[in-house]
Write a structure and sequence with these properties.
This protein has about 400 residues and is of the alpha/beta class. The relative contact order is 0.15.
Length: about 400
Amino acid sequence: MDILKTTPGRPKFFLTPSGGRARGGRSGGAQHDAPRILILGGYGRVGQEVARYLLKATDAKLVLSSRTPRPVPHWMAPASRARADITMLDVFDHHALLAECMRASLVINCVGPSGIVGDRVAVACKQARVPLVDAGGYDPLLRSLEQAEENDPTPVPLVINVGLLPGLSGLFPQWLLDVRGNKQAVDELDVCYVGRDAWTYHSAWDIVSSLGGFGVDRGCCYLSGREIVRVPMRKATRRIAFPDPIGKVSAMLIHAEEIARLAQQRRINTVRVYGANIGPRATLVCMLAKILRLHRSPERIATGARWLARASARDMRTLEPAYGIHVDLRYRDGSSDSATLTLADTYRATGTVIGITAHMLLEGHGPGPGVFLLHDAVQSDRFMQCLRKEGLLEIHPRPETAGMILKGVTA
């Protein structure tokens, strides 16, 4: 039996050998059940990919939630259908949500937009004492949960921002820092992430909201020590060459809370993060939304989200989806390393990242109780090995051609 670490005075949380859960403190003593995973938003693009991964990688029972009646997904084989239940659920109905969470071994939240859902799912998971893997949440959820921890500590792990951005965007730099061959202290960290796809309305909503820093608009900036240094927009861009099919792109300085926290944890002095939505029409809409400050209210964000969803769909008529993360490490001895991660299927990759995280928690390879970002919650090398096995990504340079950062890691 794997046992997650606990805090005195809190209900204990155990993982059984089959991945189920046993919790003490209830009538009838501890109960051992087969793992039951509740996937909120189980019929969305990400939720479906999460289900695909978990059906393949685990023997868990899945419960796919939807606000309206749905049949079992057509792609499920008969053996998989026997492990899948369907439930109607509105996450804004707290009592219904809490009841479903109480029946689960683990909750995965793929409902969006994150800025509308807020902390509803996380609060229900805390009350039900069930671990959470949340695809979104972003900075507002992180702030809300950490503030609540002071007076109401969570008895289970709540892992949020588990996607490509944020999520893999913080774990990939963490992995490079963990496995690099050069053991010198890192002085500077530069991270650039770019992406394009036919964004759903919910994804577009969160993208537009992020243009204003999720309510804390720091503008174009970077970190020097613990200080935020603002940079004029005309000086805030960087030209970066990604492997095909992305190519050369211009990205702009942004604030990324997960990278800021990673830098603080690793005692890195200077951190610059660049980001860009690289579909040509999507780029134009994002620039326009920023200029018009559409991020300042939910109604205006909704307008920007509709524009962005339409623009990105038109981009994908002639382009393929793509996502990339480029990382530069500069050491205090003057040497440097760099590496780039690219992938093509952004929604499948997002679902797989969530699925791997959930699988690791069920197997006892996650954290104890608390609030965590992805790079805090899992062991980076174990996670990347699982992700690479899925054949979704490429890492450049390959280990055999550049043995510094990726030493000991197979391609």
